[in-house]
Request: fold
Amino acid sequence: MIPPGYILIRPETLAGVQKAMEAALGAGAGECLAAGGRAGGGRATAALAGDAAARVARLLAQGGEIGWGEFALERLTPSALAVSVAGSPFARAYGGATAPVCHLTRGVLEALAATVLARPVRVRETACAALGAARCRFESVDA
Reply:
């Protein structure tokens, strides 16, 4: 069953949109997708209760529940967040790439990191399955 407030869409559809955006906008396409991830991630994060660790755990679990891959928390400190994802449908549907492609996930994790770290941060995708990595990996960096 699809959770309330969500729609079901094939990853190949999103990859097609992403590639069309890249053709039209170049590297800016990734930032557009990340902005969408931040919008959805901000809304999802605002609905979570508890301390930082509980909020992170719940959002990562939700990511798995809605089919975004198998999320694993690698590090959460007062100043840093690092998350990896196995089986990213975004990387799988995109296929081989020359740069990381999981911009929606990156945006969601930016919204989460800004909330739990209580300051503006950016998130970088430091490894991507579309580049041949076993897992996609995301790390917070100060904005």
